[in-house]
Model the fold of this input.
Amino acid sequence: KQWYQRRVAITAGDSTNDMKLIVILMGVLVVGAYAGPVVSEVDSVAISWEDVKNAYSKLKAMSVEFVCSAKLHELLDILGVPDELDGAVKLAQSIICGERALQLQGDAEGELQAIADLFQKVKEYYNKMKLYTKDFVCSAKLHDLMDLLGVPDQLDGAVRLAQNYFCKEEEVPVGVGNALSEVEFIADFWERVKGYYAKLKQYTSDFVCSAKLHELLDLLGVPDDLDGAVKMAQSWLCKNEELEKRSLRQTREGYTEALINCILELNKHSEHYVCHEAAHDDLRKLCDTSDFVVRMSRGTICN
Done:
């Protein structure tokens, strides 16, 4: 976003790789507000596109974590580049770190959508299970329930969760109104998280991640009893959370599977214990997964 005010002359070639790099650079500009300022200044001198490409190709051979945390003079020394070409190296660094921001943003949105979709399916299968007796559903094998409900293999986790919640839920006495079930609350919760995430994306990550929860509640016009959903949405937008989440190095299916398994494990224990902050480390050992997954699982149960 600061580049609009800079006098940087780039002579672009017409090769496919040149065009790809230009598209990436345009994307970096678009998400500048999300990624935060990667570059503070670029010298107001003409930068050769060849110099930028050479620096970019060399930096791509290094780990993105190092490139995005390194000082400019460190990169100049490693690349053996004279000081007068620092603008080319700085621009190449910005492109690489912007690529990472684009990827993290896309991954975060996709995974959040996958979780919201998952719990909508859990709610659907839970409501279908209510057509059968508790004895039948709770004694049935997973594959039998999947066949009965007509569920494809890739959604077995949703059936496992639906069965788990159905069987641990107490029978509703005759005459009691149709209160929302825990599953319905959870499905609604994640839909709210998705909605608040979309609204918070309109603001810079620096603002969102440094804001107090009550400030975000006021900004979004959300009542205090929905603060858990706003807090969860804030977590998905903050860079440190995203980097930690991606360190799982899992596919989206693997991530949701880890979340399902952790929720099932936590449901074996009392809500009072699971929601007590002092229990977090012990619960992480029980789930045997990342800190981020455990917090998302606890948030699902405790909110």
